[in-house]
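Sequence in, structure out.
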Amino acid sequence: MQIRIHNEGWVYFISLLIITIITLPFFPFIGLILFLITVYIYYFFRDPIRNIPNEDFVVSPADGIVTFIGKTFPPFNDVNNNECLKISIFLNIFNVHVNRIPCSGVIKKINYIHGKFINATLDKSSTDNERNIICLKKNNNDTIYITQIAGLIARRIVCDVRENQEVIQGHRFGIIKFGSRVDLYLPFDYKILISKGQVMVGGETIISNPNNISQVSNSFKN
């Protein structure tokens, strides 16, 4: 069994563990509460190994539940005005919060936008909340956008990639601390293989197969 947590979690885990050890002999009840919080911190920052598909798929960038699939415009209005498909994934406080690259390519642009911290289940969080937008250009020149969105509890977005960096499908690229949302924007002609309400596994769940592009269903054209 693998025991591993994300690097961002160690400072919280070690600090709470030390405070718990010091507190427990003198204040057992408070020490017990601190112990439970320490266990949760370890659980929250867990970073499990994932079985990444070796085909040219688009995989989920995050664990969580799909709350929205629909037609919209890219988050970078200065790149192009072509319509695309947005898939929103909500991460609750019990989901793995390590984010993963949905497909291989090159990071062309990163834009961090300061904003609000409203409930990430609301669709307006895509435009109102604090967020980090990543523009990824695939090897076939298709453009994919990934947006890390802070939520009601989440207050810190960590992005470990940089502009002009080559990235590989399924590799870790960051983490959002304590409840959040990730939006994925795909070209409009990509066939979506998931549905609203489906549970995603970051790096494993296949969202689309670009090699099997077909007409988008009428539900996205209304």
